[in-house]
Amino acid sequence: MTSDPITLLVNGDRQVAASPVTLPDFLQNQGFNLRLIAVEYNGEILHRQFWPETQLQNGDRLEVVTIVGGG
Asked: Pairing between strand 61-66 and 3-10?
């Protein structure tokens, strides 16, 4: 079952996603490597254990930080 698309703010840019969609599915569709990112969800750091149960909603704000190694 699908409903109308939702609009999200991701790192300051508007993105449109199908609904319903979980956080990990959305992030993978955006090309993020889930093992190498941290996510702020609506202003709060969201611990990885809660990602699978997080259903994105219209108007949600995500800040995605990629962890980069090197020296």
From this structure: parallel
State the pairing for strand pair 37-41/44-45. antiparallel
Terminal alpha carbon distance of the chain: 47
Give tens-digit pLDDT for 30-45.
999 999 999 999 999 9
Alpha-carbon distance values, 14 to 8, 49, 64 (Å): 6, 26, 13
Residue 1 reports pLDDT greater than 90:
no
Q: In angstroms, rounded to a whole number, what is the distance separating the alpha carbons of residues 54 and 60?
A: 11
pTM of the model: 0.90
